[in-house]
């Protein structure tokens, strides 16, 4: 799981506890990361820009950093280590694609100490976040790093076609070697900014088998809940306007198809929910506690990669929202079923799990004991379809248009229909009066005219002079062409009127 799931828990009260990873202290890992990245990115600036070639994805550069220093590297108080950089030119292209300049990348990672996050998952990985809240650094297993290397050409092609994506944005893959131990790390975008408090955080896979937060997880100050918790807490889902909903679902569908083509499964949607309808006092307290973030907002305009940009891209309305109101931090506006105004932060995480033999065996074993369709491990095509169906029907929903709008159109059409029929009927009535006047000039008696008029009033083929309330109601409730009906019968009515008068 992405470390951003534990925003707010960033080493709060746990900085004194020195963690170890592969028998290496976390402080030594953080120091080696900053020294290694500082050297490799600085060395990369001297290389000219050019197009990325196929062989660039398989290049591995290595540098040895002894503790006493060398002609190329500075001295340090950590054990001697070797630092490897995978596909440096390809990752430089990825960073440029998202507007990350080399100086900014170095400043974010190397200027201040990295902040260690408490581990939210069972993977045993270490997570660090940069002090300016921009990047997540995660230790990965050998198979995950190897899979990412194989994924790079396809990842490159996908980013070229669709830079608007909720997939993880990889900015670098490195390896630290010390004392015969390899520690591989990957640098990614931070999905959940720490400067924005997440009132709810969910890790959603679209499955229901054991998808509930454990008791130990619930005891944390910022727990990460799961699918069954979401269905219980947000049973009505989260609502978006039509344009945002369509953009979000289109992005999710495209990303899932990409992951399916790479035979990737068991990924999650990390969803952070910030409730805007909270007191101003709480916001002021949060702002006063985040002094580094206040400094950061003055240095940089917006985050390099935000949720709003991931579904709308650069130059879209999302940029205008961020510029006009920087407090949103690039969150996606939404509403709860209670009408609360929300900001959502999200991203697809844990994509370095391919459907290999061990995963197939794991699914087969679980399918024998439980319902195979409910477990998280499944073949990529089924996993993608189930994931999308869950997001589309249970998590994200479109705000329905007001029900008054169709009836308003109907009322307008009925009014037009009534007006047309009234004009036709009034014209017929006027013609009838004119004919009646002509007949009077010919010397016919009033009594005979009254009798004829009375007789015609009981004729079904004659249109009355004024429509009754019942007829007006029938015009308003039926979709019949009353005007055509009247037009078709008008000549017949006038013929009958002439014959009667004669």
Report on the architecture of this protein.
With 502 residues, this protein is α+β, with helices and mostly antiparallel strands. The protein has helices spanning 26-44, 88-97, 102-110, 142-161, 215-218, 227-233, 242-261, 280-289, 291-299, 307-312, 317-324, 357-369, 380-395, 404-441, 446-457, 469-477, 482-501, and strands at residues 20-21, 24-25, 60-65, 81-86, 115-117, 127-129, 135-140, 170-178, 181-189, 200-204, 224-225, 238-240, 268-275, 332-335, 341-349, 396-398. Strand 10 (200-204), helix 5 (215-218) and strand 11 (224-225) form a beta-alpha-beta unit. The longest helix has 38 residues, at 404-441. The radius of gyration is 35 Å and the shape is globular. Residues 1-16, 291-302, 313-324, 359-372 and 439-502 have low confidence and may be disordered. One of its GO terms (cellular component) is cytoplasm. Keywords: ATP-binding, Cytoplasm, Kinase, Nucleotide-binding, Transferase. It is found in: Cytoplasm. Residues 25-395 form the PIPK domain.
């Amino acid at each position: 799981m992405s470390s951003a799931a534990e925003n707010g828990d960033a080493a709060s009260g746990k900085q004194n506890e020195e963690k170890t990873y592969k028998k290496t202290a976390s402080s030594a890992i953080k120091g080696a990361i900053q020294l290694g990245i500082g050297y490799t990115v600085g060395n990369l600036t001297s290389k000219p820009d050019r197009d990325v070639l196929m062989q660039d994805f398989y290049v591995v550069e290595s540098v040895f950093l002894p503790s006493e220093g060398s002609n190329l590297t500075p001295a340090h108080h950590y054990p001697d280590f070797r630092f490897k950089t995978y596909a440096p030119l390809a990752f430089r292209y990825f960073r440029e694609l998202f507007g990350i300049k080399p100086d900014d990348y170095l400043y974010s990672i190397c200027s201040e100490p990295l902040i260690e996050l408490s581990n939210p998952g069972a993977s045993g990985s270490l997570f660090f976040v940069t002090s300016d809240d921009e990047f997540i650094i995660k230790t990965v297993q050998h198979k995950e790093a190897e899979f990412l290397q194989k994924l790079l050409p396809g990842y490159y092609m996908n980013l070229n076609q669709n830079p608007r994506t909720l997939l993880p944005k990889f900015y670098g893959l490195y390896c630290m070697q010390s004392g015969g131990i390899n520690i591989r790390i990957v640098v990614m975008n931070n999905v959940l900014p720490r400067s924005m408090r997440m009132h709810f955080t969910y890790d959603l896979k679209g499955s229901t088998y054991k998808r509930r937060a454990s008791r130990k997880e619930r005891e944390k100050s910022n727990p990460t809940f799961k699918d069954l918790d979401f269905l219980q807490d947000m049973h009505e889902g989260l609502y978006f306007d039509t344009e945002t909903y369509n953009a979000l679902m289109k992005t999710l569908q495209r990303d899932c198809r990409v992951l399916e083509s790479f035979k990737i499964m068991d990924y999650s949607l990390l969803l952070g929910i910030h409730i805007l309808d909270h007191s101003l006092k709480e916001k002021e307290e949060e702002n006063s506690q985040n002094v580094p973030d206040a400094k950061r907002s003055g240095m940089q305009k917006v985050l390099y990669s935000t949720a709003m940009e991931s579904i709308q891209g650069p130059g879209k309305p999302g940029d205008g929202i961020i510029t006009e109101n920087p407090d949103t931090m690039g969150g996606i506006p939404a509403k709860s079923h209670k009408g609360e105004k929300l900001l959502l932060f999200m991203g697809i995480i844990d994509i370095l799990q391919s459907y290999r033999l061990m995963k197939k065996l794991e699914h087969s074993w679980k399918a024998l004991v439980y319902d195979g369709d409910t477990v998280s491990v499944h073949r990529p095509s089924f996993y993608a379809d189930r994931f999308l169906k869950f997001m589309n029907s249970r998590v994200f929903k479109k705000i329905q248009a007001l029900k008054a709008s169709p009836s308003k159109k109907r009322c307008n059409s009925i009014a037009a229909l009534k007006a047309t029929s009234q004009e036709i009927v009034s014209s017929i009535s006027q013609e009838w009066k004119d004919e009646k006047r002509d007949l009077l000039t010919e010397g016919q008696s009033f009594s005979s005219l009254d009798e004829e008029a009375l007789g015609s009033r009981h004729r079904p083929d004659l249109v009355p002079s004024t429509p009754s309330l019942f007829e007006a109601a029938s015009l308003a409730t039926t979709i019949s062409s009353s005007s055509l009906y009247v037009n078709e019968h008008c000549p017949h009515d006038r013929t009958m009127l002439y014959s009667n008068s004669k």
